[in-house]
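Write out the 3D structure for:
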Amino acid sequence: MVGTSSRRSPLRSSLIPATTVGLLCLLAATTPAAAQGSSKGTGAAPKSTKADSTVRNAVVIEGDDHLFMVAAPRGWILDDTSGMGSRIRCVFYPKGQTWASAPTVMYVNPMHGYGLKERTVSAMIAENEREFHKRAPKGRVFEAGSLKTASNKTAKVRHFAYDGGEPTEAVAFVPENELVMLVVLSARDTKGFQSGLGPFRELVGTYAWVGSNKEFGR
């Protein structure tokens, strides 16, 4: 079994050190409207929906200079401590497993792209792919459409195959004002990758930017 520190990822070298404090609170009060479902007030208590449940389970993660909201997919655990050794703010793995040993995991972390002349999503995706090919010369990158986040942003998705065969990692690139947030699915084999795609899509759908220190004036 490969340990946590040696998990392969096309993104690992792009991540900056995190100073995550951890989970702050449930975010029903500050959740963007798009993440709160489409229930309309009728004077009576609304019925519980899957969207409502996701909002109740959503938490705020504090990064070095920003906050974002995310929720664990059904059957998965959100862990804000186990990934810190790998400089990752929050990690996800199936219930009953661990970050270190789970064959399929997910995580969320920012990519700042400080070294790029243009810090656009396209430029940062291209840089990420160049770094991937340096580490995996036989690897292939596949465009995999896009997904919507809880705040209705469009996340471009790429699939990565290290040996040139079938992909074992998926990455959603979510554009923010000063960075790109990465939502990553990483599996040890293609079977785990395929089984993780559903939770991956669900995870991307729960993500929402809360704000930066600059935006909060702090």
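The chain is about 20% helix and 30% strand.
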